[in-house]
Every structure is written in C-alpha cells, then in structure tokens.
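Checked the freezer inventory, then went back to the computational side. Two predictions to log before the end of the day. The first one is the construct we discussed on Monday; recording sequence and tokens without edits.
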Amino acid sequence: MSAVLRRITIYPIKSLDGVSVDEIEVLPTGALANDRRLAIVGAGGQFFHGKRTDAIHRIRAHFDLAAMTVRLNGAEEFSLLDQRAELGAWLRTTLGVTCILAENVYSGFPDDTAAPGPTLLGTATLQEVAGWFPPMSLEESRRRFRANLELDGVEPFWEDRLVGPAGREVAFTIGGVHWLGVNPCQRCVVPTRDSQSGVADRGFQRVFAERRRESLPPWAPDDRFDHFYRLAVNTRLAPGQVGGRIRLGDAVTLG
C-alpha cells in the first residue's frame, strides 16, 4: 500500500482550532511554519490549554493565513502579527484568567520538545477510532486528536511503522523532506472531550486503551507501548535537513 499526504493542518494558536492548507514550509527546527506559533500563557508561566480547562473547547477560531488574522467566536477579528495585546485581552475576558500570548516564530510551542516536528496519523486510523465511539464522525476524530499530517492510501495504524524499538528512530520521507519517527504520541485529557462543547465522554480513555491494545498491529514495537493511550507519531527532522516544503499528494516512503 502507498501512503500519500492527504491533509495538512496547523494550529496557529496552541490549543485553539486548526486550519488546513495545501502546502507548508518546514522550518529548520522541524516545525511547520506558523504551527503553534502563539501560545496562551498563564500568570505562572505555564501554558493555558485544554489540559487545564475545558473552556478552551468552546472558543471557535477561524484563521485567514493570507492576512494573518483570526476571527474568534464569529465576531472579533485580530491580527496575529500586531494585535497580540488585544487578542490576549479578549482571551483573558473570555476565559476568566490572567494570561498573555507568547510567540515563537522559529519552532512554535510543541508538546514534545525532543520531537518538535509535525504529528502524523492515517485517515483510516482516525476512521477506525471514530468507530469505537459511535456516533463520532471522522471530522470529530480529527478535531480531538489534532494531528498535523494525515496520510491516506494505507490501512489503520500504518503510521505505527514509523516507530522503532526503544533507542531506534525510523527514517521516512515526505516529498523531498527526510524525517525521523520518534515515539507514539501519549495522549492527554483533550481527546476525551467533545471538541466543540468540552463535555467529557465518560470512560473514553479506558475504552480507547482497551481497543488500541486489541488492535495493535504486528509491526508496532511492543516496548514502546507501556500503556495504550497512545495515537499518532511524534517526529523530528533527520540530521542534515534544513527544512523545505511539503504538499498534498506527496508520497510518504519508509527509509
């Protein structure tokens, strides 16, 4: 089966909605341009995100990357470049917390700093997981797991091939850019909640872990699954790579 890059999603403000693009620049750090470029930071210097409050899920963000603006909850529009103070004030009022917006244009604010590249999942995997929780849709599965890159043309959990045994990273290529698969992504509380309302699905993590264990493919390295609440692959650029561009339709090849 041939894996093809079918969807690219970036999240200009960490924890808020994503936006899909046809192609994207890969920065020298391995981050996708403008992905998690901004982050909501609380008074104690910690990220304020969905792991800390379900109120994040009820903010709708619509990005115009050409203009570098965001419209929040269908009303207020802000420039991502020169209205960070005003945007921070809106978030403080809406979330009811003391916070500011921090910016990192070079690497964004990845969850896994040892693997700051894009997260990667298969369309078939997302569809399979949605089937574990009827009536969850494919789109809701996407919103909950928030992967940057989505692959088509392969079976469920194909992406587990990009994870090697402990101590070994797996080389792969997307278009002309060379990557390393680092580890299966450990999930947090966010996927357990409805992506629009923030309402938690009782038992989600338990059911997910049970079904993930039952369906773990033979190519997945057992020693990388100390628990089964893991989905997607964390990545980083291969040594010597300085970035590049990836596009929808690019082939994804091992080695």
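The second is the one RB wanted added to the comparison set:
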Amino acid sequence: MAKTKSHERVNDILLGPLERPALKWLSSHMPAWVTPDILTIIGIIGAVIIFAGYLLSNIAPAFLWLATFGYFVNWFGDSLDGTVARYRKIERPKYGFFVDHTVDAFGQLLIFGGLGLSPYVSFNVASLALVGYLLVSLYVYVNTYVTGVFQISYGKFGPTEIRMIAVIANILFFFFGVQVISFEFGDVLVYDIFVLGVAIILILIFLVSTIRRAMELARIGQ
C-alpha cells in the first residue's frame, strides 16, 4: 500500500491553465500569518456562507449572491491550504490529508443541505446528489490508499469546475426563479431534473470506477 507522503496528485482539470498560475501567485503573496490551517477554516466558512445564502433565498432571491460569494470564499480556502503548505515546504501529509478531506465532507454536507433547503431544488434530490458526491470521494480516498494516485479530476472536471457550475446555476435561479414542469403524476422542479442528472452521473462514476479497479486488482492478484 502506498504511503501518504508518496501520493501522486492528478488534477487535470478544464480550468487548470487558469487556476494553477493563480494559486501559485496567491501562495507566493500570502502573508506569513495566513497558515494552511487558517485557509482550511476559511474554506469551511465559505461553505457556511453558501448554506446561509441558500437558506435565506427563501426570503429573497438576492441572497443567492451571498451563496455565490460563499463559493469563491470556499474555493479560496480549500484550494490554497494545500498549495500554500507545498509552496512553503511545510507539508504534514497525514495530518493534511485527514483534515482536508474530513472538513471537505462536512463542507459538502452544508452546501448540498443548503441547496435542498432552498426553494429551487427539493431536499430529497439534493440529498441524493450529496450521496453521489460522497461516494465518489470515498472511491478517491480508498483508491489513493491502494494505488498511491490521488485522482482529483475526472473527465477534465474537478471541484473547481463543480463550483463554477453551481455559480452558473445560482445565476439561473436568480434571473428565472422557481421553474416547474407539470406531469401527469405531479409537478417537478426544473432544477431537480438537472441535479438528479448530476447525482446519477456521480453514482455511475463511482460504480464503474470501483468495478474497474476491483477487476484490475483481482487480475494482478493484489
């Protein structure tokens, strides 16, 4: 089994050519008092802001802009904590891996929970999308332990792209409001169809990836 410190990071994302130089610049200009732990806290604060923005959107759609701001705060903290640690050569592989991903799981609970408590997506569908996200995360972490490869991105999509999709969705929520399609069996929120599609894709990624890896390990006898 691979040791934590020897993990190979794979983050081949669509926005990588823009994100990587930005993170490198931010890391080199970050004040000394801004530690990786502080950035991790900033990331979770961003998730709390997202939760609050979605919840308050029941009062006024303008609070969606608060949720959108939260996504940028979450990206700033979550993307920079490890980057700053590597730039300053102060990595703590086991501690960083443990804290970063347990905090990320809690952050996703806040984000999807807030989305499900908004008027735009039903709670059941948002919960299913959360299950899909956590299943993929589980696969990534177990696969990292087994292979030593920390695969952050799939099909050019990673956490940054998911955040951008969420920001675009917030803009659609704000300008078009709650949209409903009527079927014989009842009314369905338009955005539920999209989020349900995301949930199904995530679950399929988990299933296909897990089966492929299990077959590979069985074939090589490990």
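For RB: Helices lie at 16-29, 36-56, 64-88, 93-117, 123-147, 159-176, 190-220. The chain has a mean pLDDT of 89. Let me know if you want it refolded.
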